[in-house]
Amino acid sequence: MRPYDPVRDVSEVRVEGLDCDLVLEGGGVKGIALVGAVAVLEERGYRFHRVAGTSAGAIVGALVAAGIPSARLRAIMQELDYRRFRDQWPVARLGPLGQLAAIVFQGGTCRGAELRAWLAGELARAERPVQTFRDVALEDPGAAVPEGEAYRLVVMGSDLSQGRLARLPWDYRRRYDLDPDDVAVADAVRASMSIPFFYSPTAIRSPRTRRRSWLVDGGLLSNFPVWVFDRADRREPRWPTFGIKLSSRPLEERRVNEIGGVVSFTRALVATMSGFYDRLHVEDPSVTARTIFVDTLDVGATDFDLDRATAEALYESGRTAATQFLDGDADHPPWDFAAYIARYRT
After folding, report:
1. Cα 291 from chain centroid?
2. Which of 11, 55, 200, 317 is catalytic?
3. CA 156 to CA 189: how far, in whole Å?
């Protein structure tokens, strides 16, 4: 018999329905593909209980947690000029030397202020406006949620000062002495999408110790936190946790990193470090079985010159992947929660 593989949901008792938890991978401008997959799940009747994400996944996750319907999400992404998010520091506009100076003195070539302002505006325009994490508090009296984690949204950041993953808002009080109900959701997402050397890092200062922590892109440690809503006991979940991963195959071929100098060595080091943590989970068959893998058409995370046709193709790719996941195809059967429980959680 297969060893027990614990799945953790906040619930104590399994109930029928189309609720689900959602985990969204980071991927920069490729996040439009996440919206396509979310749209199919919504059209099939799924209600998103909690959402987790990193970087672009944090952006889309925040909008989903705010209750913005998928049709509106698609319109938002279609109308968006991604080039506005490339808000370089003045010195970075002076060429390579200026960009190097911006990295040395600002930690990145771009400020990230435009993205933060845009997201805050979209959240404020939601049917139930969202400003701080108080506005996305989890309303589920029967849930066995650990103290400080009762929120519909959690985003990942990499705390360079403390050398560990920051789960926001869960860690605001535990590590930074901040009341998460008073912290803006847009600030947490801004920290999660701080691509190293591209966007300046985000600083969090503890009001008690006055110690400052610097946060960068959560993808450095966990770009696909599919484990985040899991529970440690042996109880069955009330509903599934679906992952949406910006990759066309469950197990990508292991890439061989050719190393011939300092630059290639650094690139290989970062690639190994950023991929290993999530790979421990993604390679588990029980995780693969609940994950939607989306082909992102070779679009890069920072391709801010993305044209409308490519954005639409990414959206449709997300829809196709979610449809195949739910309905099944030649490679796997249709999604069946009862069968999943019987195979992996018994």
Report:
1. 14
2. 55
3. 8
- pLDDT computed for residue 203 by the predictor: 94
pLDDT of residue 302: 76
Contact 254, 279 (CB under 8 A): no
| Residue 55 is among the residues annotated as catalytic for this protein | yes
CA distance 296 to 299: 6
Tokens of 121: 């505006």
What confidence score (pLDDT) does residue 8 get? 37
Regions of the chain where pLDDT drops below 70: 1-17, 142, 232, 248-282
DSSP state of 83: G
Q: How many CA atoms lie within 13 A of 6 on its CB side?
A: 12
Catalytic: which of 21, 135, 171, 217?
A: 217
Distance between CA 133 and CA 85 in Å, rounded? 24
Token output for 334 = 């249709």
Q: Tokens at residue 200, please?
A: 């300046």
Element (H or E) spanning 342, and its range? helix 337-344
Q: Which two tokens stand for residue 169?
A: 């808002």
Instruction: Give the list of residues 6+ apart from residue 331 with CB closer than 8 angstroms, or none.
Output: none
Q: What pLDDT is recorded for position 3?
A: 33
| Count of CB atoms situated within 10 Å of the CB of 55 | 29
- Is the distance from CB of 51 to CB of 21 less than 8 angstroms? yes
3-state secondary structure of 117: helix
Cis-peptide into 146, omega within 30 deg: no
* 331 noted as active-site residue: no
Residue 66, pLDDT score: 96
- Contact indicator for 122, 67 with CB cutoff of 8 Å: no
- Rounded to two decimals, what is the model's pTM? 0.87
Separation of alpha carbons 326 and 187, rounded Å: 34
- Count of H-run helices and E-run strands, the chain: 11, 10
